[in-house]
Design goal:
Elements (H helix, E strand, L loop, with lengths): L5 H14 L11 H7 L5 E6 L5 E10 L9 E8 L8 H15 L4 E6 L4 H9 L3 E12 L2 E11 L5
Parallel strand pairs: 3-4
Antiparallel strand pairs: 1-2, 2-3, 4-6, 5-6
Length: 159
């Protein structure tokens, strides 16, 4: 993912926010804020290049902590544009992100997903994530307490 992809990535992020089941975020960040909160490696876009390049989805990792002991643990974000859902884009992105993460020395990937987001849960489980728990009423979104299902994937390669 390059900065020139940001307008498309931001639009896909906006579509995710609009669903009400993708994130606690309610406002779109600018590139500088998004860039600062995500790892500089392990950022991917899926691009369709038929007529004009078109970003279909994106995936990126965020560090879970600045503590050295957690340097190999990262949180996953995967977003697919509404016009590309159901076409395998999310699966391709998540598989590629896992490969990139392992190449970067990441040993544990984690995801926090609203239980209502069954497509995302299914995607993550199909890529080797397992449920590790539920954080009940962990945050409020639009005046409603929301649970978050915790999933993780431990790398069989990075130890």
């Amino acid at each position: 993912m390059l900065s020139e992809h940001w307008p498309s990535v931001r639009e896909i992020y906006a579509q995710g926010i609009a669903t009400g089941n993708a994130t606690f975020e309610t406002e779109l960040p600018d590139w500088e804020k998004w860039h600062a909160c995500h790892r500089k490696d392990c950022r991917l876009v899926a691009v369709e290049t038929s007529n004009q390049p078109n970003v279909l989805g994106w995936a990126a990792l965020s560090p879970v902590s600045s503590r050295h002991v957690y340097r190999g643990v990262a949180e996953v974000s995967v977003y697919v544009g509404s016009s590309a859902r159901g076409r395998g884009v999310g699966t391709a992105l998540l598989h590629a992100l896992i490969r990139e993460a392992e190449a970067a020395g990441v040993w544990t990937l984690q995801a926090g997903i609203f239980p209502e987001n069954t497509a995302s849960i299914t995607l993550h489980k199909s890529c080797g994530f397992r449920e590790v728990g539920v954080r009940q009423k962990i945050g409020i979104l639009k005046g409603v307490w929301r649970d978050v299902l915790l999933l993780e994937r431990r790398s069989p390669i990075v130890s």
